[in-house]
Design goal:
Mini-circle protein, MST-like, DinB/YfiT-like, 5 helices, Four Helix Bundle (Hemerythrin (Met), subunit A), single chain
Length: 175
């Protein structure tokens, strides 16, 4: 995998503006995910070390689609397709096709993150999701602040999973 650009720094502990704090932490975890994938061989990126069967590159693709689902489809009510593009049609498990390169999956992730940032920049924290979005029931409109907190827990959980996978793969830790 290509090395990450300058990594997002851990947000300072004196940051108190809720919007800045949420966005800084979200970008920190996005960057942490990429840092943990950096240096893994193509084989390790595509190999599962866990009983659930997901591979690190599939986790990256999953999180690209999580960004798409929550921000573009859910909050902004964009009509995007595919929504569940990380799932194998037969097994419904996270999947990266053999012809998809690590660089393509990373570019997809970075593109979805950029689109999410643009959506968030144009909205207030208390703004509800637009009608026609991907939430169920259809009249459910969570506020952007709720979605941002949800995304933080999603990233924290998956970056923790990747910590374990990386340690099993090559004894890399933390970072």
């Amino acid at each position: 995998m290509v090395d990450s650009p300058t990594p997002a720094a851990r947000p300072p502990d004196d940051l108190t503006d809720p919007r800045e704090l949420l966005l800084a932490h979200l970008d920190y975890y996005r960057a942490a995910l990429l840092r943990k994938l950096d240096g893994m061989s193509e084989h390790e990126l595509r190999t599962s070390r866990l009983p659930s069967g997901w591979a690190p590159l599939a986790l990256l693709k999953h999180l690209a689609f999580v960004e798409r689902r929550w921000f573009r489809w859910g909050f902004a009510a964009e009509q995007v397709d595919p929504i569940w593009g990380e799932d194998d049609p037969d097994t419904k498990k996270w999947h990266v096709a053999a012809e998809e390169t690590a660089q393509e999956v990373r570019a997809l992730f970075e593109d979805e993150c950029a689109r999410s940032r643009a959506i968030v920049a144009a909205a207030g924290l208390q703004e509800p999701a637009r009608s026609g979005g991907g939430f169920n029931p259809p009249d459910h409109h969570p506020a952007l602040i709720w979605i941002l907190f949800h995304m933080l827990q999603e990233y924290a959980r998956h970056v923790g999973h990747l910590d374990v996978v990386r340690e099993l793969a090559d004894d890399a830790d933390g970072a």
